């Protein structure tokens, strides 16, 4: 090994970029005098944006957060040991890129024009975000102290070898990097289609039909969906929104303002006809178009470090959710009482004192809210929010479309009306819950059943449904496509059967008894869930094959087992190595989406104490301390 310690970071997307920023911030303190360090970033995609946020994708694909709500920088609310290095949000950077060194003009004229016109409350394209992330990486590189050198390799890591007490060999296409420490910051990864897709894949092959399994929409091959073809779509989340954009505007159609409000769609004639449904039966809630009227609620109040939990394995619904639901209610009512006191019948102090005393599940809390909030529409109903179409039964497809359009219009109206800013208070609570949950789980593991059904299942879905929805204009576009007859809603609890007699995908919902839709194509509009045993990443495949990484496998005392598909790491983000007796590997770390840290988001809303920022700082400080000793 060289006398200079070496750190190799595999993945130069937002997570690798965020880690580099924290290395630059902490190195002056933690690297001793005269200690040098070489850092290598390796990614086959352009550094900064990585694969998901690369420039080379459709300009129709946008972020689902407002530009002012996207940052890569720590701030005064980040709870960490390292120094705060403030930096601009996407909106602040876009307002005047030249004011933020190191400035480099956008090579793409369309992106430059977009950045110039981008409002703080606008939703940038992913290509514009790519420019921001490229700048963040270059700024972090420029802030590295003189004793830290950076090398960037646009390449794929094929293999990682080396003994735990010796140098690690990072095998690229035509060279091998020798490293003292290696970090896998791989981001969102593909997996081969799972066993649940075998039936539709075989059916489509035998009948000459088209089936698109879960995929990152920007990379999906949609050419098999023919103009005018009836396409059944499972899923109404963000992948669905991207799919719709690519199959409409992406095929030459256009949206235009309708006199009196709303949009009208002018088709190109190349669009398929979409029949879409899901478990809930409705698209994600649109993003709010306003800010809080009152102060930001002081989180956490009920769900934080002081939460009392049982000594045995934890059940999400029994042990966590009551406090989590109460925290969401606190965020909601804090904004209602502070931002709209005229719609409340008690003072905030009176309400909060009683709210503190009452458990979430119980008549006392219900009675308190009824007395303090006169209008039922101002009361938080989490069950109705989660399943808005529960019990829906209609008599015709036309009635179902009418009901769903009314739902979309109501959601748009509520999310654009400042009178309902309490919804944003609930949103802030959800962000707080997410951050504290990531911190709490390593010390209080859930049962296998609860991890599968509640944590990775229901909670992840509910969080995304409420907090990760698209911009409002996307719902306006869905309404326009519905009016144009190119989008039909199928309803909740969607069922898709493989109809051998007709050679079609037959879709139905209990909301419309006795009615079926036959499609000649099926699209599963879900983001692919990473499965380690089916991973598309060559490095993870090699490590798994060699027995050097392990998948999270949970087993309850009664034998019930669950495989999450995630790579096991310890609380300090070290890779668990089966060859070391399932102990942490001292020289290998892994961060982000495919790991059991369960903190995939690499950028965040300012001043929300994002868990990924905290984790980046802790890992950077640990690595620098260890590498200083390697010198």
Automatic annotation (TrEMBL):
<feature type="domain" description="FAD-dependent urate hydroxylase HpyO/Asp monooxygenase CreE-like FAD/NAD(P)-binding">
    <location>
        <begin position="8"/>
        <end position="188"/>
    </location>
</feature>
<dbReference type="InterPro" id="IPR036188">
    <property type="entry name" value="FAD/NAD-bd_sf"/>
</dbReference>
<dbReference type="Pfam" id="PF13454">
    <property type="entry name" value="NAD_binding_9"/>
</dbReference>
<feature type="compositionally biased region" description="Low complexity">
    <location>
        <begin position="589"/>
        <end position="611"/>
    </location>
</feature>
<feature type="region of interest" description="Disordered">
    <location>
        <begin position="578"/>
        <end position="614"/>
    </location>
</feature>
<protein>
    <submittedName>
        <fullName>FAD/NAD(P)-binding protein</fullName>
    </submittedName>
</protein>
<dbReference type="InterPro" id="IPR052189">
    <property type="entry name" value="L-asp_N-monooxygenase_NS-form"/>
</dbReference>
<dbReference type="InterPro" id="IPR038732">
    <property type="entry name" value="HpyO/CreE_NAD-binding"/>
</dbReference>
């Amino acid at each position: 090994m060289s006398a200079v310690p070496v750190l190799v970071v595999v993945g130069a997307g937002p997570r690798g970029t965020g880690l580099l920023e924290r290395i630059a911030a902490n190195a002056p303190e933690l690297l001793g005098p005269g200690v040098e360090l070489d850092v290598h970033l390796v990614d086959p995609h352009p550094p900064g944006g990585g694969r998901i946020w690369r420039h080379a994708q459709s300009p129709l694909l946008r972020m689902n957060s407002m530009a002012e709500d996207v940052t890569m920088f720590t701030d005064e609310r980040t709870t960490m040991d390292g120094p705060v290095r403030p930096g601009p949000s996407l909106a602040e950077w876009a307002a005047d890129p030249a004011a933020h060194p190191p400035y480099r003009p956008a090579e793409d004229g369309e992106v430059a024009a977009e950045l110039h016109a981008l409002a703080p409350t606008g939703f940038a394209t992913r290509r514009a975000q790519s420019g921001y992330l490229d700048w963040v990486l270059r700024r972090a590189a420029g802030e590295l102290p003189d004793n830290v050198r950076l090398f960037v390799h646009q390449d794929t890591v094929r293999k990682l070898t080396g003994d735990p007490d010796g140098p690690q060999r990072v095998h690229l296409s035509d060279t091998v990097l020798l490293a003292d420490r290696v970090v896998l910051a791989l981001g969102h990864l593909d997996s081969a289609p799972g066993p649940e897709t075998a039936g539709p894949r075989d059916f489509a092959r035998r009948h000459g039909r088209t089936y698109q399994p879960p995929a990152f929409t920007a990379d999906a091959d949609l050419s098999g969906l023919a103009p005018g073809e009836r396409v059944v779509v499972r899923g109404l989340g963000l992948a669905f929104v991207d799919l719709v954009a690519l199959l409409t505007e992406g095929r030459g159609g256009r949206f235009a303002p309708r006199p009196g409000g709303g949009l009208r769609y002018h088709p190109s004639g190349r669009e398929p006809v979409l029949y879409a449904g899901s478990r809930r039966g409705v698209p994600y809630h649109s993003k709010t178009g306003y800010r809080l009227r009152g102060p930001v609620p002081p989180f956490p109040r009920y769900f934080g470090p002081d939460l009392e939990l049982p000594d045995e394995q934890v059940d999400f619904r029994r042990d966590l959710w009551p406090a989590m639901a109460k925290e969401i209610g606190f965020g909601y009512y804090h904004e209602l009482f502070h931002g709209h006191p005229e719609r409340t019948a008690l003072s905030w102090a009176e309400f909060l004192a009683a709210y503190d005393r009452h458990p979430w599940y119980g008549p006392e809390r219900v009675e308190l809210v009824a007395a303090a909030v006169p209008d039922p529409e101002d009361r938080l109903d989490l069950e109705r929010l989660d399943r808005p179409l529960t019990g829906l039964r209609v008599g015709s497809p036309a009635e179902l479309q009418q009901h769903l359009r009314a739902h979309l219009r109501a959601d748009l109206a509520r999310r654009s009306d400042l009178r309902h800013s309490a919804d944003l208070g609930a949103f802030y609570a959800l962000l707080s819950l997410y951050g504290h949950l990531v911190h709490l789980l390593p010390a209080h593991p859930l049962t296998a059943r609860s991890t599968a059904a509640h944590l990775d299942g229901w909670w992840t879905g509910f969080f995304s449904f409420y907090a990760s929805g698209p911009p409002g204009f996307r719902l306006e576009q869905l309404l326009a496509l519905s009016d144009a007859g190119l989008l039909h809603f199928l309803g909740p609890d969607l069922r898709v059967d493989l109809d051998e007699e007709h050679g079609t995908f037959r879709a139905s919902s209990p909301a419309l008894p006795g009615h079926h839709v036959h499609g000649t194509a099926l699209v599963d509009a879900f983001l692919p869930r990473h499965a380690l045993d089916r991973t598309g990443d060559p490095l993870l495949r090699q490590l798994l094959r060699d027995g050097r990484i392990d998948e999270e496998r949970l087993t309850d005392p009664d034998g019930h087992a669950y495989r999450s598909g995630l790579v096991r790491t310890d609380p300090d983000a070290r890779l668990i190595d089966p060859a070391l007796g399932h102990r942490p590997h001292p020289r290998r770390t892994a961060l982000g989406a495919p790991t059991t840290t369960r903190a995939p988001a690499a950028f965040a809303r300012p001043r929300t104490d994002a868990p990924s920022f905290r984790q980046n700082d802790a890992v950077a400080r640990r690595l620098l301390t260890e590498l200083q000793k390697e010198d």
